[in-house]
Amino acid sequence: MSVATAELAPSVAVVGARDGGRRARFDAGVRLIAGIGLGASLLLVSSWWAAGGGLQDLAGWQTGLESTGRLTGLIASDLLLVQVLLMSRLPLLEKAFGQDRLARQHRVVGFTSFSLMLAHLVLITWGYAAGELARTPATLWDLTVDYPGMLLAAAGTVALVMVVVTSIKAARKRLRYESWHLLHLYAYLGVGLALPHQLWTGQEFLTSPGATVFWWGLWATAAVSVLVWRIALPLWRSARHGLRVTSVVPEGPGVVSVYMTGHDLDRLPAEAGQFFGWRFLTGPGWSRAHPYSLSAAPDGRSLRITVKELGDDSARLRRLRPGTRVLVEGPYGRLGDRARTRSKVAFIGAGVGITPLRALAEEVDYAPGDAVVLHRFTHRPLFGHEFAVLARERGLTVLNLPGHRRAPGSWLGAGVGTADDTTALLHWVPDIAERDVYVCGPEAWAEDVRRSLEAAGLPPEQCHVESFGW
Length: 470
Fold this sequence. Notes:
Elements: E1 3-4, H1 22-51, H2 54-57, H3 61-86, H4 91-97, H5 99-128, H6 136-146, H7 150-167, H8 169-173, H9 177-184, H10 186-194, H11 196-201, H12 203-206, H13 209-241, E2 244-252, E3 255-261, E4 275-280, E5 290-293, E6 302-308, H14 312-316, E7 326-332, E8 344-350, H15 354-363, E9 371-377, H16 384-394, E10 397-402, H17 421-428, E11 435-441, H18 443-455, E12 463-467
Parallel strand pairs: 1-10, 8-9, 8-11, 9-10, 11-12
Antiparallel strand pairs: 2-3, 3-6, 4-5, 4-7
Helix pairs in contact: 1-3, 1-4, 3-5, 3-13, 5-6, 5-7, 6-7, 7-10
């Protein structure tokens, strides 16, 4: 097969996915159980509230405020701990959901829990003020200084406010990734400080041994998950594998590949399509982990990432010296063979978003002609020679889509003609609905691709997306 710029020839060869979709079905089961578990936990805490007289208390003004405040506090507490679990890098959830889906759900759960927490604060204070709005500020002060754990809760609320404000889309656009990442870590501090007062004094937390075990168990699970999967495991893997930079190779304007080697890399559970959080121990910026995908299939001897200079830390990679030590977190992400259910595959990438797809095209199983790459780029394609080798040796079909995006809402480059996106896609890949499709690129662009794939008849479960949003 050949590398082309204008047209593609469809193929008919068939090869089975590596495990027949077994892992994808297992992950779907985990997602279902996780959703049922979340719903059950919310019903459980609500039932304890009702059993404690919460429904009867709604009959009065003051008692109704207090009762509603307790309910919103219970649900907020449950969701805050779920939010921590979602981003704790718990392997079972990480493999089943993938980072993109976890991040979206984390955002929804986070804003919901924060809104309910504020409602809890207002309602419970208003109720303790005998339902008199004018007395509420003084009552809030008394609660803060007199009740156990309330000073900690106030500090935790301030930390969570800071995290939520900087997570709003308009605010994120004004922040460097490095600053946003540092501020976002305060979410753990906020949750850790905001919840203990309820564990100590909240009546719904103490009404029965079952309730006490549930709340302390959920809190401990969240805390242990963060300590193990976000701190202990990355440190252990970094020490065990001893990664060091071997070379830095320019790939194009503002794009470099970083090659690394280490010990026992064949035991590092990484697959093509996944990413790590990387910390290069060069001085400034080492404390921040940056998510970069593998751009070559891991071979047990070395790792490669390819990065575009988009910020302060990514620009420093060009100046890395051989021998620089590297700390890693991961591997993460579900943009890989794990999600696959079909024998045929398609890879659609934009710019440097082609990097994990390049690794996938090397590693995953497919017959000649059963895999196609669509690469949109502005100036010149990344890995042009490497894709040509894969085309020659493995029968990979490559379609280059050059030029700036031709119109708002279009994911195609200006050099591909005037047909609408879906028509063009079906012309190049008529059987797109029968494939697993892997998409990687900027968030808005990836969403445009998703819409075209949906219009072309691709079932949602066969669309696997990783975007650059944060």
